[in-house]
Structure formats: structure tokens, C-alpha cells
Amino acid sequence: MLSQRVVRALGRRCKSSAVSLECPVQAPVSEAADQPYTVPEEWSHARPYQQVPGPTPLPLLGNTWRFLPLVGDFSIPGMAGVCERLLAQFGPVVRLSGLLGRPDMLFLFDADLVEHVFRTEDALPHRPSMPSLDYYKHVLRKDFFGSAPGVIAVHGEDWQAFRSRVQQPMLQPRTARLYVAPIQEAAQDLVRRCRSLKARDANRELPADFLNELHKWSLESIGRVALDERLGCLDDDAPADTQALIDGVSTFFHYVGILELKAPFWRFCSTPAWRRYVAALDTITSITWRHVQRALRRLQELEASGEAEPPLLLRVLRAADERTACLLALDMFLVGIDTTSTAVASILYQLSQHPGQQERLHREVASELPPADQPVSAHHLDRLVYLKACIKETLRLYPVVIGNGRCLTRNTVIAGYQIPKGTQVVFQHYVMGRSERYFPDAGRFQPERWLQSRTHHPFASLPFGYGRRMCLGRRFADLEIQMVIAKMVQAFRIEWQREPLRYAVHPMFTPDGPLRLRLVDRS
Ligand code: HEM
């Protein structure tokens, strides 16, 4: 049964789903927002915004028509290729204007320009993500989320108030190290599950829906961190609500791209896509809430028993209130499941494509880690330098988030152009990560490049973002990924016997097709 409180809050639906067309990025501007951040002379000497090159919008349809099936030349799954074409056609700064119902986008393909924008961002950076989630949290379910509804799709002082409450425990390297043992258990659950799945296949291949198993592993890992709970996602009799949560997150990501990039009909009426999206978010919210309630009860028991170092969520609960803890857990589930599982899918797939590098990694793992049934410590992981290089190399070539961004909170001069506040600047890390300008022999999977003293531009590949809004779960993601890849490589040789997979934006940048890795036992 869902918590009565959540049911009540979720039950108070908006009378109408219509939303105003007001640009959601216009509110959170700083005091100095109306001023160019640069000296006025620079602004007055800069070229007008209209001169930034980019695809020409059509009357009425703008550039949104490009996402239409059959006639359009853009597609969401094919966005990586679209971005490469835009760079080739227009150069390192491209304006995508005339997007119905949303601000213009400015694509940056130059790492110096990315650095410039990041280094001059204001105290309350605004990531231009998800007006639909913004609407869900701030309008449709405002009763539940209140005025500080987490960090995802939250901006300005509300964002700062929430982030400052949770940032310290989340990003301290010391915190992630407390989770090595439970994260190892989750990784071992996956190895066990893989053994049993491949044993069911004559060719020892994993099933076509193996990505779902990785989602389960990822949820299991975050469950340990966020809730201090063994969810049992990878057990044969996994609780039904774990798959419901995974499906909810997948549905959320499936529809968010459609709602955000295609014509925004959801702003005027309740479309089928919008209804499925809202239902998915309601599911995620209510399941998370139920688990947080359980965690709260455990906190009371822990406090009664004088336990010294309660887990993350419980520490947040102790420091704040139960709503903050629930909203943090919700954001962690929302953006911490598919990101990490997609990264792991991609790394496993790349290792299967590069047996030489996989063998080198196996040698490192075999010499640095204790036998599979013994505990791995943070010090063991520290020594896996080639593993870390393989992870970085995969995320350089196949960043899970192909383009992070910022919504300008003040008029800014970029590349000699006057860029007005409200413009969504998109950092094209997928394209920059593959550019010869920043990485010699850029197309080759070459983890060794990360072992040399730094020669690459620090802003060309930033898989976890940068600055005050950098990924809050980065420490946990690093730990989870390192542990699970080390355990998989320790247990198996990972092979691929089928046609190579392409990648597509779904909206994580994912190997596009059944992930039928073949596993051969190492021992
Ligand atoms: C490979 C895995 C992951 C990748 C590639 C990734 C990537 C990112 C990126 C690019 C951002 C935007 C940063 C910016 O705007 O500068 C972000 C934000 C965020 N990530 Fe991650 N992430 C991953 C895993 C996780 C995990 C496991 C969690 C939670 C446990 C998490 C929680 C968050 C949160 C809460 C934010 C929003 C921070 C804010 O707006 O203040 N992420 N992530």
C-alpha cells in the first residue's frame, strides 16, 4: 500500500495539464543578470547574436520541424551524428533558434569556449534541463515537493538551499569509501546473476535484455547508498517494486526527450506521452517515499543502539528532515540508475571489442585485487590505475550524457558574439572528445592516453560536468563502476561474437541493440 501522505499529495492533480508558454529559464537570474558579465566595451564591440551561424528556421515551424518523422533531418536517437554535422557545416559555435516553446540553443564545440562559460558562471548556475520535470515538481505535485524540491530541474535559491544541505556528505571522498563493502556485495550479486544467465544459453551469451540486469545492479547499489537497504534486485524472486522503479525511470527518460525536444503539445493539453511521463514519476515518487519511511524507522533503531556512522541517507535525515531525505533519494534514483548502468554497459561492450586492453586490465585486476571471495578495500581500488583509464577512455568516446549545458543567467560575450541571457548553451562533449584537436588519434580506444601526464584540454571531456552543479553522485558512480568492472573482469573474459553495435541517444548514449556479451569463466 502506498503511504497515505504520498497518495494524498499525488492525488491532488492539477485541474488542467495546460502550462503557460513562459520560458522556464527566465526566473532564476542573478542580481547582475541584466548586465553583461564582461566589461561593457566587450559587449558593445561584439557581433550581434543574429549573426551566429546555424540552421535557418522556417516561418511558423522554426527549427522544430527538423524533429518531425519523415521530413525532418534531426532525430533524438541520432543526435550525436546531428551534432557532428552541425560542427562540419557551421563551425565551432552554432545557434539553433526557432524551437517552439523553448529558448534557443547555442552549441559549443570548442573546449576553450566551454572553459570560458564554466569559469564565468554565476553563483547559481542554471542547467537547462527538463521544463517538464520542473512543471511536475513545481506545479503539478507542488503539494508534495514544496519549495525546495531537490536539485534536478530546480534552480536559483531553491537549488542552492537544497544542494548546500546534501553536498558535503555526497561529495566527500571519505563518504564513498564507507560504502565499499555494500557496493562490493552488489557487484558480486551481478557476477552471480551473470553466471546463472549465461549458463542458460548454449553459447554462454547474456540475454538480449541484459541492460535491464545492469539497471537492477545499479538500483541495488544506489539502494545501499541512499537507503542502506539490500533491495534484492538481482535475486530470482526480486520484489516487484524494484522492477516498477526501474521501469518508471526508463519511462521517464524515454519521454523526457520527446517532451523536451519535439513540439511541446504537453504544454497545452494532456497528451498520452505526458500522461505516461506523469504516471512514471508518480510511481518513482511513491516507491521512494515508502523506502524512505522504512529507512527512517531504521534510523530510530540505530540511534537507540548508538551506532557511530549511520549511512548517507540516514545522516541526511539526521541533519535535515524526512522530506529532504526523500527528495534526495528521489533525485538519486531519477538520475543515478540509468546513467551508471549505461556507463557500465558501454565499458563492458568496449572491453569486449578490445581484447588486448581487456587482457591488460585483467592482469592488473589479478595482481592487485584479493581473490574473488575476499573483501576488496578502497586501497585495492586506488591501485587499479588502468581500470580508471579504461573508464575515462570509454566516457571520452561514448559519454553517457552527450551534451551537458547551462542556461545563461546574464548577457554574455561568447566567441565574439553577444549571447543574450536565457540562451541554452550546450557543451558538445561527445564531439570534442572525438576531435583530433584535443586527443591525438582520437577515434582509437586507447586507455593508455590517460596514464601519461596530462596533455589533453581539461574541458574537452567532462563526463560528470563541472563547477557548482557538477554531478552530485560522482563519488558513488566512480566507486560503483570501478567495483563492478573489476569484479566482472576478474570473473570472466568478455567476448563479442556478433555484428558490432552502433550507439544511440535513448537519451543516455547507449550501445544500441541487444547486449549479448559472451562470458567465459576465468577460473
Ligand atoms: C556514470 C554515471 C553518471 C554520469 C555520467 C553522470 C553525469 C552527470 C552530469 C553530466 C551531470 C550534470 C553536471 C553539470 O551540470 O555540470 C550530473 C548531475 C547530477 N548527477 Fe550525475 N552522473 C552519473 C551518476 C550519478 C549518480 C550515481 C547519482 C546519484 C547517486 C547522480 C546524481 C546527480 C545529481 C543529483 C545531479 C544534479 C546536480 C545538481 O544539479 O546540483 N549522478 N550527472
Automatic annotation (TrEMBL):
UniProt binding sites for heme: 471
UniProt keywords, alphabetically: Heme, Iron, Metal-binding, Monooxygenase, Oxidoreductase
GO terms of molecular function: heme binding; iron ion binding; monooxygenase activity; oxidoreductase activity, acting on paired donors, with incorporation or reduction of molecular oxygen
UniProt xrefs under Pfam families: p450
Cofactor(s) recorded in Swiss-Prot or TrEMBL: heme
Recorded superkingdom: Eukaryota
PROSITE patterns assigned to the protein according to its UniProt record, in alphabetical order: CYTOCHROME_P450 (PS00086)
UniProt record similarity statement: Belongs to the cytochrome P450 family.
Protein name, UniProt field: CYP450
